Amino acid sequence: MTTTAGTDLKNPAASGAFSRSAAKDDHSEGMSYLESLPRKTVTVYIPLFIIVVVLLFPFYWMFITSIKPDQDLLDLHGGNPLWVSEPTFRHFYKLLFESNYPTWLWNTMFVAVCATFLSIVASVLAAYAITRIRYKGAQTVGGLIFLAYLVPPSILFIPLSTIIHVYGLFDTPFALILTYPTILIPFCTWLLMGYFKTIPYELEECALIDGASRWQILVKIIIPLAIPGLISAFIFAFTLCWNEFIYALTFISSNPNKTVPTAIVSEFVDGDVFRWGSLMAGALVGSLPLVILYAFFVEHYVSAMTGAVKE
Amino acid sequence: MADAAVARTEARPMPGEPSAWQQLKVNRNWLGFWFMVPAMAFLVLFLVYPLGKGLWMSFTDARIGREGRFVGLENFEWLSDDSDFIRALIFTIVFTFVASAVKFAIGLYLALLLNNNLPFKAFVRSVVLIPFIVPTVLSAVAFWWIFDTQFSVITWGLVKMGLIDRGSPINWMGDPFMAQCVVIFANIWRGIPFIAITLLAGLQTVSPSLYEAATLDGATRWQNFRYVTYPLLTPIIAVVMTFSVLFTFTDFQLIWAMTRGGPVNATHLMATLSYQRGILGGNLGEGAAIAISMVPFLLAAIMFSWFGLQRRKWQQGESND
Amino acid sequence: MTAFTRRTLVKGAAAAGVLTGSGLTDWAKAWAQTSPFRPETGATLNLLRWRRFVEAEDAQFNRMVAAFTQATGCRVNVSSESFDDVQPKASVAANTGTGPDLIWSLYSVPHLFPQKCLEVTDVADYLGKKYGGWVPLAEAYGKSAGKWISIPVAVNGGYINYRISMLKAAGFNEVPQDTKGFLELCKALKAKGTPSGFPLGRATGDGNAFAHWLLWSHGAAQVDERENITINSAETRAALRYAKELWDTFIPGTAAWNDSNNNRAFLSGEISLTANGISIYAAARVSQDAKQREIAADMDHAFWPIGPIGKPAEIQLAFPMFGMTYSRFPNACKAFMAFILEAENFNPWLEAAEGYLTHVLNAYDNNPVWTRDPKARVFRESAKRSFPAGYRGPINEKAATAIADFIVVDLFANHCTGKEDVEGAIRLAERQLRRIYR
Question: Same domain for A75 and A110?
């Protein structure tokens, strides 16, 4: 690799759109001890600060909206819209104690956990079969799984809803628990395939020689080694379930069965009046479990993805 | 398990001797099949019928509540001459291209920044993921408000700074071009965290010793990035960008919650247009035809990002020998 | 309190009796004995309705539901969806043949799938005879091919909302009742820095109201009585030119407005005049914010001005309720529809809606809601002044598609935003109409 870098230096780089910005700040942890603080401020802290501010601004806006009294929401030029002088927790109170919010939160959690769990089980098995058992046509099947993403849900939920009705799942959490895996399995399978490839074959061969069955190998060797990969698949899948809207809107009809995103929209939009405070409070409270989940697992996520790309 | 680990070194299969792998070949296909059953069951039970039905509907004049007659390519002929469809198609492609490119550029930049030794590293990393977490419909509603022509907080800020006049606010969502920019911006906002964090993971696999060696050879920062980091990152870039392109191309929620395709159909993506025509307008056949027309483009987009990015790797390898 | 009441009531009979006035229940029990419509024994209904605009209306509606359950033993589970989301759900239900028994939706939605709607001619005849007959609009919306397929429970009147003081400042005492004078008013309002604003975005209620008024008041229409496309006409051109002039007096951004934007802009004082239901007034009047109550005191409503056609030409948001043919309890569906339109139920409900909803049975003209507050008076006429969707053509699935696809709104939006010239905008609309009306 060193020689690659050396010999290629004379090639005028065909730079991507990112080149200019990326070039300034190319350094990894390995070299960071060479940095002086002022220089690091300019090259790292300031750009990072700007990006984080832009990324968080809408979130801040949601937060400030959710604690503003209703009259401030309409008052455009009276005060500073970015600040609130008399914060109120009425919107949160209303959300938590005067609506079905706790039920919706529970539904969302239940659906997300079950759908994610099912998807991961199916994906682990599939990924293991494709990468390790390498049966005839494994590569083709791997590709076909990917093609599931070619089905655009915006129109195909009509035929899908026919199926939901035929199976008698309409307006039950199972309508979502069983359809979400169709979105989740391809991604999780891909992720885990990458991860399984990093686990040395030798481990498995030995176990086979020792007379272990495939199932034992999977459960006792592969899965424990792939825990970080499972965590990252879990996080990704869980987030998708949490945010899903179309299926949740179409397949669930009664209020106590709804998930957070659809329920919030139908509960806090009164005809032609948006209840901004409650909508935004709902968005925040709805994201809270995920924020906590991420705060705990983001390092695992990163290291899991790290594992997945090392081939 | 400990035995297995110890035994690893000595258990290499000898050449010519049938290894445990080969012995299993007999039932390998069956075994593979059983392991594939759960995943395939989901996809077959819940996707094959809708896809088949959708394909069939696109060749009929089906309406809500009524099976259609077979009309051949009539839906597609009609669409090929439909200016809203053509514009939705072009906008979808531009939307996907611009949003994916910017997401990639900023995502990679952010990943490089996060790869530094930072105070509160874990905290900063999880904070960056927030846009990915907030339910899309609701963040879209927040964006809708941030970019409202009358109530935009951005306009308010610009007025306060004296950059624009209060009497002539920026027509964020009312002007077709501005509205297109706004929805692209919102999509980028939502997509960056996933790309940044995944690329960050990729960056961490690059061994610091490579940089040290390159630096000793006199490589600059840019050369370090271009010839050490980037090539090593290529596989994960290919995968991440493929998924990013896929999810961007089929985006529905964001557009629907922010603009419903307006103003004057300027922000319709194919997904929203197919919903508008098929579900709201009741023309299931036409809606399905729009959805089905997405497939070749989607396939092309995937092929492009997948093979395009893989090819870079291959080209480099070739030029180096 | 309201949220509490609503959820509890929806849950059914047990809680309902406690909260319902016994008067309504007693009457309801008597009604159940004598009514020609009797629910099947053990029937349960699932009703999907649009999400309320006015809180009090919702509470009163649930009181009726509870009384119905008390009297007949038929449970009714009400679920509500934002009014733009009712149609997709109804469409899915019609297509898959399962879902809510009763759907309460907008405009011409039942005409998207007339063959899936329960025939309710007997209910309509019963109510028509008892309550002074249906207004012609109701008949147009309710009937498909000579049969009633839905009961148009009410319409939502949308009229000009304006700020009295701002009008005065611009030199007008009232909203001129002709299109020419109206344009002058809007110009004067803009000159005073208090512009008007009408939505030309995806605003199912207000956007359609504005665009159809522009089209029809100039004597234009998308089709004639025999469904020949007539959009390419001198009248349409005149309407487009007028629209453009009016548009130039608006506050910026209305091409992106949906039904909620004009409420917000009006209540914040950004605009002086718009078109809306009474919901702006109803919300402001009872607001905890003194500023809002001031706005309520300073605002009034007026009819849509009359254009070259020489008569009122408006579209008002109809709310038809229909049963689905797949329902196992068709008689319960019919009984429920008949029940809510009986005077003992309908009068208090109409009052609770504070003018947001207008009756379509002539006998309800005398409801006190129309005389109690003079600012609500114009809304009484909305069912009588409205043309049906798809005018001059019949209401059918084609008309329903045209309105669901925002053909008329886009016709004006295309021209006003400068995207198309007059001919281009007409050409686009004509092309789409040809396909819909093929």
Answer: no
Instruction: For residues A261 and A127, give the distance between their C-alpha atoms in angstroms, rounded to a whole number.
Output: 31
Task: Report the pLDDT value the prediction gives residue B154, as an integer from 0 to 100.
Answer: 86
| Number of separate domains in chain A | 2
| 3-state DSSP assignment of residue C84 | helix
Which segments within A80-197 are labelled E, that is strand? none
pLDDT grade for B305, boundaries at 50, 70 and 90: low
CA distance B89 to C360: 44
Any long-range contacts for A185-188 (C-beta under 8 Å, 24+ apart)? A185/A119, A185/A122, A185/A123, A185/A126, A185/A145, A185/A148, A185/B39, A185/B42, A185/B43, A186/A145, A186/A146, A186/A148, A186/A149, A187/A233, A187/A236, A187/A237, A187/B243, A188/A119, A188/A120, A188/A123, A188/A127, A188/A233, A188/A236, A188/A237
- Which residue bears the tokens 């390519």? B73
| Alpha carbons A140 and B227: distance in angstroms, whole number | 33
Contact at 8 Å (CB) between C349 and C146? no
Number of separate domains in chain C:
2
- Taking the CA atoms of chain C, what radius of gyration do you get in angstroms? 22
C-alpha span between C139 and C120 (Å, rounded): 12
**What are the tens digits of pLDDT across the range C372-406?**
889 998 999 999 999 998 888 988 888 988 988 89
Backbone angles phi, psi at C245, to 5 degrees: -65, -40
Nearest Cα of chain C lies from the Cα of B260 at a distance, in angstroms, of 7
Residues in chain A with CB shorter than 8 Å from the CB of B219 are: 5-6, 9
Radius of gyration of chain B (CA): 26
| Per-residue pLDDT at B54 | 86
Question: Looking at residue C162, what is its pLDDT?
Answer: 95
| Domain-located, residue C359 | yes
At C201, which CATH number?
3.40.190.10
Range of the domain at B279: 76-312
Of A99, A250, A274, the CB nearest to C3: A99
Chain A environment of B150 (Cβ under 8 Å): 76
Residues C109 and C133 in one domain: yes
Query: Cβ–Cβ of C428/B83 closer than 8 Å?
Result: yes
**Backbone φ and ψ of B294, nearest 5°:** -70, -30
Assign C99 to helix, strand or coil.
coil
- In chain A, residues with a C-beta closer than 8 Å to the C-beta of B229 are 26, 28
Which ranges of C356-406 does DSSP label H, i.e. alpha helix? 369-372, 382-385, 397-404
Domain extent, residue C86, equals 2-155+317-381
- Rounded to an integer, the average pLDDT of C97-115 is 88
Instruction: Residue B109: name the closest of B225, B14, B275, B240 by CA.
Output: B225
Query: Averaged over A284-298, what is the pLDDT?
Result: 79
ipTM for this prediction:
0.85
Residue A29 pLDDT class (50, 70, 90 cuts):
very low
Is C85 in the A-facing interface, judged by CB distances under 8 Å? Answer: yes
pLDDT at residue C217 tops 50: yes
pTM score, two decimals? 0.85
User: CATH number for the domain including A232?
Assistant: 1.10.3720.10
Average pLDDT of chain C to the nearest whole number: 89
Q: Coil, helix or strand for B321?
A: coil
> Of A88-102, A197-211, C133-147, C175-189, which range is least confident?
A197-211
pLDDT at A155: 65
Whether residue A275 contacts residue A282, with contact meaning beta carbons closer than 8 Å, is answered with no
Please name which of B263, A74, B235 lies closest in space to residue C291, comparing C-alpha atoms: A74
Q: Are residues A75 and A114 both part of a single domain?
A: no
Query: Is residue A8 in some structural domain?
Result: no
Task: Put residue A211 in one of left, alpha, beta given phi > 0 → left and psi -120 to 50 → alpha.
Answer: left
Virtual torsion, Cα A200, A204, A206, A207, nearest 10 deg? 150
Instruction: Kindly state whether residues C188 and C255 are assigned to the same domain.
Output: yes
Give contacts of B 212-251 with A, CB under 8 A. Answer: 212-215, 217, 219, 221-229, 231-232, 235-236, 239, 243, 246, 250
